[in-house]
Design goal:
Strand content: 25-35%
Radius of gyration: 21 Å
Largest sheet: 6 strands, mixed
Amino acid sequence: MDNFSKTPLYEEHVKLGAKMVEYGGFLMPLEYTSIKQEHESVRNKAGIFDVSHMGEVMITGVDATRFMEKLYSNDVVNCPNFKVTYGFMLNESGGVIDDMMVYKFNDEKYFLVFNAANAQKDYDHIIKTMKGYKVEVEDLRITCALVAVQGPLAVDMVQAIVEDDIVSLKFMSFKEVKINGETCIISRTGYTGEDGFEIYTSNENIKYIWSELLKNPDIAPAGLGCRDTLRFEASLPLYGQEIDENITPLEAGLGFGVKFNHDFIGKEALLKLKEDGIKRTSVGIELLDRGIPRHGYKVLINDEEIGYITTGYMSITLNKPIAMALIDVRYAQVGTKVEVLIRNKKVKAVVRDKKFYQKTYKK
């Protein structure tokens, strides 16, 4: 375990008795009490996640916007300053190198946040793509720490430690604020389907923020286990499951993160895919018999494989077995009866929408 990186909050997790696991090259807390208990804390009150393992870079320079138009699938030109957008870095085939959040300060300054497991690959891709552009790329992975505070009580808890107003901050917006006298980036964003905030700060200040927030008895430390069950119920994708280098955003049902008004890498492939029509698409699946649909399980119709489960659980909030699946578009109509192969047993299921849980974002 000594070969893995540790976040600045590692010792705090150990003190709290967290079960630590390797994820994205880091030792991270899977759970502190139980996935179910932490999941319900976030849904009903609030939870705090250490997500300092994420990758971050700052793009600056006179060509920053022009460079982002090439690198990134979403529209940065028409994005207002201090707004966050979600989109993709794509390969030439339209497959997803990674999904990411882009924070636009102004036309010459962008803050990018991407997945820990892909951080080095993403950084290398950014460096390769920047040739010919007057930009600087600052790798902030070592110096930038991040916590996410999520849940219906998150706003009051976060406001209590922030010296500036954050109550009026809208979903997918951000600002620079003072916490403990230090300038931080705070955004009204998250990966749970609940209202909440993500706070970017220094490795030292993150310890103050963590300890101050946990003084409130209504907030629970939450691990990666419930982060996955929460994002799944909110139908949010996970790289390596809903998307990867062989799955396009259009197939994954994430076309809102792609705007065709600029020339980004992978654009031509996606335009051709739109013209030809997608052959597979992401759907919801609900089991009609007992069983739990897991990642990789085959989806069948009349013994013919039509796709596979990308993520599935016994939903903690809904208390029923549901999944997201990538299947042949011919069978994607809601109500289509299918079967899921679970340990060589065919379990009856039905195609449904992916609106498993009503998100509570502050628009």
